[in-house]
Amino acid sequence: MSESSFDIVVIGGGPGGYPAAIRASQLGKQVALVEREHLGGICLNWGCIPTKALLRASELFHTLQRLDEFGLSAKDPHFDIDKVVRRSRRISKRLAAGVKHLLKKNKVTVFDGHGRLAGPGRVRVEREGEQPVELAAENIVIASGARARTVPGLEPDGELVWTYKEAMVPSLMPERLLVVGSGAIGVEFASFYGDLGAEVTLVEMLPQILPVEDPEIAALARKQFEKNGIQIRTSATVSALERENGQVTAQLDLGEGESESITVDRVIVAAGIVGNVEELGLEGTGVQVEKTHIVVDAWQRTGEPSVYAIGDVVGPPWLAHKASHEGVLCAEHIAGVEGVHPIDTLRIPGCTYCRPQIASVGMSEARAAEEGRELRVGRFPLLANGKALALGESEGLVKTVFDAATGELLGAHMVGPEVTEMIQGFVVAMNLETTEAELMQSVFPHPTLSEAMHESVLAAYGRALNI
Question: Could you say which of 218, 253, 271 is where a domain stops?
Fold first, then answer.
């Protein structure tokens, strides 16, 4: 067994692991990264990036169905699902190659294989058919990520019942589709397949779709999804699946003794994630695991000295950009960089790239009210925004929540076109501790969708100009 020594060994090369390795190297550390499958992780290879490529295709196809509204015409617009998928895979492959280049450029040593703790300050790297390699490290960062949660009775088979992986490389375009779970993954796939013509039913066990979003925004999104043709069942569960003759018959429990049976071509199960904590050598260490996720403090430290954890294997929100920030925070803390601050998860934006898009940061109106604060809430509908009307995408809302006593921006919530690009304006405002006064005095360009952000702030204080 060969051995090498490093200042830091990172286990996992996803959106948390590779930024941690690069930042640590920039700070003068000798760094190794261990990755068992794909550099870039699930996000780059099977999540964030390829799904956005798929959604771009479905959005364009939806626009082609509306050409007459814009005075345009085209003969027989259609799609080739194989070509759509191949484009998304090409983009992922290109970015994965970019991650490999970045690691090499930053002098990070990459080990292919499965990494596990092998005693204090030691990581064992195993690869089938090869001798194990043992690495010595002053600090170890676990960035092993997460995987789709398996629901009893709804176990994926890769053919009729899909996880997100099969849904991104479909063997056929289903005419009828059942999506179980209405979080970001579920609604994005419902939107993608719905815009390509599938009859989609979306099932959510909670009373609200998009459970982490402000209820008012979720309700508006639901209304638009249903207008787009998606059938939605909330407060509902799938009690059984019967797979036969290339189809699936699902029994839905709708509550209060009601039930429904639907037959579909495929089922996508998007019912959350579980952390990849198995086979990491955590047994006998001080690393604590709760509900499949590693427990860490504000600096990403586990209960085991010199062992850190970041990304989806730790607590929510389970977002790639949060993982990247944790990776940088972790590397800087290890290196002793001054001025490093723990992450305030309330200031991390959440984005869902369905049609219409949803984006938010901070507290919902309900959560802010639960804290006993007196609130000022502003709302501005995109129906009153000139740019949205010109785009032909005027269904949406920008909502802002302020502390009435201090003017602090507590939360911002949006549904509509390109709101995932707009939310960062409110993120910056919150991190700069901007009040309503600075936001109202800021000049927003015209005509833009971002004007709706300004008008929402004005509306919270009775000063809206265009509603």
Answer: 271
